[in-house]
């Protein structure tokens, strides 16, 4: 992995350097164009400078992260001669020591006798629920109808104020 990261870091560094050079080049060409012409060429080079500036910034940032991920000491690779040695020629591993014999478990002690739980004291006695009170005397249907008839006519009839050919502005106000 260290080889991949070093290759990536080098490539990102090259791209970042190229974009940094392009930024300086476009900036200087833009300055020259601003001094000699009054066209829109200046705006083109200003845009190119900004694009290259942002690209070089992020490429330098990525290059720094890739460079930081390269380990300081690369892993030592085996020599080709060592890789071709037969398995018998290699050092034998340390022999495995036998595990210590398992001791028998101690006899299980009987559990202590549990004390009987203390009786819980009852909390304050609850009062019985009060009986439901009867609702007030209901009005007969004739009385309710009479009350409705007493209401003014304005509340009952809602007349649409807008005629069907009304015109409105974009904000929703009516044009008279």
Classify the secondary structure makeup into a structural class. Answer: mainly alpha
Averaged pLDDT, please? Answer: 77
Number of contiguous helices: 5
Percent of residues in β-strands: under 5%
| Biggest β-sheet description | 2 strands, antiparallel
**How many β-strand stretches?**
2
Helix-strand pattern: HHHHHEE
Give, in spatial order, the strands making up the sheet with the most strands.
Answer: 1-2
Specify the overall morphology. Answer: flat
Report how far apart the termini are.
Answer: 78 Å
Low-confidence stretches: none
What's the Cα radius of gyration? 47 Å
* Approximate helicity band: 40-55%
List keywords for this structure.
176 residues; mainly alpha; two-stranded antiparallel sheet; 5 helices; 47% helix; 2% strand; flat
Task: Provide a descriptive summary of the structure in words.
- The chain has 176 residues and is mainly α.
- A hairpin with a 5-residue loop joins strand 1 (167-168) and strand 2.
- The protein has a two-stranded antiparallel sheet with strand order 1-2.
- It starts with a helix and ends with a strand.
- The protein has helices at 2-36, 41-68, 80-84, 141-150, 153-156, and strands at 167-168, 174-175.
- The longest helix has 35 residues, at 2-36.
- The relative contact order is 0.07.
- The mean pLDDT is 77.
